[in-house]
From TrEMBL:
Organism whose genome encodes this protein: Aphis glycines
PANTHER family cross-referenced by the UniProt entry: MULE TRANSPOSASE DOMAIN-CONTAINING PROTEIN, PUTATIVE-RELATED
Keywords, sorted A to Z: Metal-binding, Zinc, Zinc-finger
Protein name in UniProt: MULE transposase domain-containing protein
Gene3D superfamilies: 2.20.25.240
GO molecular function, one term: zinc ion binding
A Pfam short name: MULE
Domain MULE transposase: 188-282
Amino acid sequence: MENQLEIIKSEKGNDLALVNTCKYRHIRQRNDGKVKWRCVHKTCTASILTDSKHTILLEILGEHNHTLDTVEKIQRQILRENCKRKANDTISVRPSKIIRTELLKADYEVPHNYIKSIRKSMYDLRRKEYPTFPQSLNSAITQLKEMQNEGRFRFKNEKFIHVSENQNFICITTRTNINLLTQCDDIFIDGTFEYAPKHFLQLYTIHGFKNGFYIPLVYFFLPDKCEETYIQMWTFLKNICFEYLSTRLCIHTLHVDFEKAAHEAAKTMFPGISIVGCRFHLGQAWWRKMEMN
């Protein structure tokens, strides 16, 4: 449709008015409320007027003195900028997935080498917007300490990164999760080494059993699997619980594997606790013993 107005994003993230494959940059809003836009080519004086909400094209002024962009070029720019914006807004989603989602909406073909270029620009944007990858455990702790209170690192407006002042571990949880944890009679804990973040030995998960569901509530990035570290972990979690809810964290039944250090730490922090071994881990231990013999 001729003379259809569309607002797109420039490479710098600014609004551009698009009319008939011609791009116009925002100039100013006039006294009569109309908004003036001028062609993005520096030597071109062609311009347009829109309403204050940038939804209605009111007038086209002047002629362009240059070759106009093709429809394909405009489509690719829109695709690139949409992908870059979503890469910045949703940092947990892989660029390749974002690109696939945007391509499903498109009704035109995009060359493979251009897709590679888009993916590279998305990674470049994330590197500029977010901290460099930490090169050591200490630098990881330092970065997360600085990030833990930033508004963009919140889940449903709740803080979820918690860093101890003097211990080398990270706690991931929210006030809502802690509140639910205090309501669970059965707690399940387990550590995995395969999915631990770089510079940490294990990812330790704490699940609560509520209304027939096993719910992941707390995650810890731990540097080792020593008894003292587990004691510090539980101490930190109890402090968070008291800070958020003004109540003590009490665990009555703990389901855990057969790691002695985890058992001893739990007994130290929760006297009288009932520790229940995990059948799955028991089966694994038996199988390893059978293979050894």
